[in-house]
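Structure in, sequence out. Go:
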């Protein structure tokens, strides 16, 4: 799996440690243990515009966050404005230097998987 930084901010200007530990208890039939080191997987729920509204950062960092507003505008952490549209799983962000599109999928209620044009992906989280 190739996890890459998403950097919404960089996208607009341009147009986890692998720690392993032994389990402390065997999983039971009533409560199967989840592997905290397992690769995250997308939800079957589609991303909606309502879900996307809010502030999102990349790979655990909210210092370079972007805020998606309900009216289709966005604002970068540094105050730079832009617009966004969502068509299916395709998110297009536009700013002063052009447009940038990525494919997105919902991870959980606070997580997005972002497919980059080069085939890599990153994970963004709600801030």
């Amino acid at each position: 799996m190739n996890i890459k930084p998403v950097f919404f901010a960089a996208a607009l200007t341009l147009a986890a440690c692998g720690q392993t530990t032994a389990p402390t208890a065997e999983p039971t039939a009533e409560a199967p243990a989840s592997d905290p080191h397992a690769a995250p997987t997308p939800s079957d729920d589609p991303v909606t515009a309502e879900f996307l509204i809010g502030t999102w950062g990349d790979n655990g960092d909210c210092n370079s966050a972007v805020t998606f507003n309900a009216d289709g505008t966005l604002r970068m952490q540094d105050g730079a404005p832009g617009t966004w549209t969502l068509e299916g799983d395709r998110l297009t962000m536009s700013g002063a230097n052009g447009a940038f599109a990525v494919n997105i999928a919902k991870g959980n209620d606070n997580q997005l998987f972002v497919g980059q044009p080069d085939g890599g992906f990153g994970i963004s989280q709600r801030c």
